[in-house]
Design brief:
This protein is α/β, with parallel strands linked by helices and 345 residues long. The chain is 32% helix and 20% strand.
């Protein structure tokens, strides 16, 4: 396990338990107590935990919100790959619920990049079509004048403005590009021109999706949890009960072949359980350090998820991680891994 991965897991273990000894952390992480000491020293320097004799305790103070910014930089490249792969699973015009966490904040940025401002001259980015010019006699292949009309959603392919089949004379161009018009918007499901609707349980995700053309942003109510910037509590639960989503993108603190999906915080777990009930499909996104880990609060069994997007698993060590990955596939969960090598041409 790489250093940043281990720091992330160490912090979550300490926060989930409140206090852990060096021996307990060494056993959970599969490293020496000396390595644990160095990691705890580094976390204490960043203001994320407090060292005590023989171990560490979690910090829970208002100023702990700075911890989010620090953790957001850990495994930044890994989170970017996870975010890109997850955003690719979102259908245009659909309704999406986005969970809280540093990884889902990266997913929000990827969704904004993909669905926010359409690139100029992209297929489907055009406005209302203008009337086509009258087509003269078509050439041998029967095509009308190239680009004789542009339809709603962009101009059709060259020759698509009313050309007849091979060998026929080209007819007049059709106003509005009735033939050969490109589909409106990006490829996928959803009514043409409909915005992507994204509801968020994270203040960080909301900031990344705000003021994005093409995205309808809903910020669900709730109490902002210090250090995580997630929205939890009765207001969040009540809001979820009033809505229905095509896809729930869920972050997770731990996944284990026996316990299933679990979290280190009771309120986070409660919100995730409520969200699972309101979604037609659930995509879980988390780096591979979460595999084989059991957290305090159970969220759901493995089969509650449809897809699991995770980082490269080839370097994983430990029987629990391998058993969990196998159990996910046995449960029918689609596992998508993002390897660094995929970025190399």
């Amino acid at each position: 396990m790489l250093g940043p991965d281990r720091l992330d897991l160490t912090l979550r273990l300490v926060r989930g338990s409140g206090r852990l000894t060096l021996a307990e952390l060494a056993a959970r992480l599969g490293v020496s107590e000396m390595t644990v000491r160095r990691d705890l020293d580094q976390l204490q320097e960043q203001g994320l935990v407090r060292r005590v004799r023989g171990g560490a305790v979690a910090l829970d103070v208002p100023g702990d919100e700075a911890g989010f910014a620090v953790r957001e930089q850990w495994q930044a490249a890994t989170k970017a790959r996870l975010a890109h792969a997850t955003a690719a699973l979102i259908a245009p015009g659909s309704t999406v619920l986005l969970d809280a966490g540093t990884t889902t904040a990266a997913v929000a940025a990827a969704i904004a990049a993909r669905f926010g401002t359409p690139p100029p001259n992209a297929p489907g980015a055009g406005g209302a079509g203008s009337a086509g010019c009258a087509g003269g006699p078509g050439p041998a292949d029967g095509a009308g004048p190239a680009g004789g009309a542009s339809g709603v959603g962009g101009a059709g392919p060259a020759g698509g403005a009313g050309g007849l089949p091979a060998g026929g004379a080209g007819g007049p161009g059709v106003a509005g590009g009735a033939r050969g018009a490109a589909p409106a918007g990006r490829a996928g499901v959803g009514p043409p021109g409909a915005p992507l609707t994204v509801a968020v349980l994270s203040l960080q995700a909301a900031a990344r999706l705000a003021d994005q053309p093409g995205i309808r942003l809903l910020i669900l109510g709730g109490e902002s949890r210090a250090g995580e910037r997630s929205l939890v509590g009765p207001l969040a639960l009540s809001a979820l009960e009033q809505l229905r989503f095509d896809t729930f993108v869920m972050s997770i603190g731990a996944v284990h072949h026996d316990l299933g999906w679990s979290e280190f915080d009771l309120e986070d777990a409660a919100v995730k359980r409520a969200a699972l009930r309101r979604a037609g499909r659930t995509v879980v996104v988390a780096d591979a350090t979460k595999l084989g880990v059991q957290a305090f609060a159970r969220v759901a069994p493995l089969e509650a998820a449809d897809t699991f997007v995770t980082s490269g698993t080839a370097s994983l060590t430990g029987e629990a991680a391998a058993a969990t990955l196998s159990a996910l596939r046995t449960a029918g969960v689609e596992v998508i891994t993002t390897e660094p090598s995929e970025e190399t041409p």
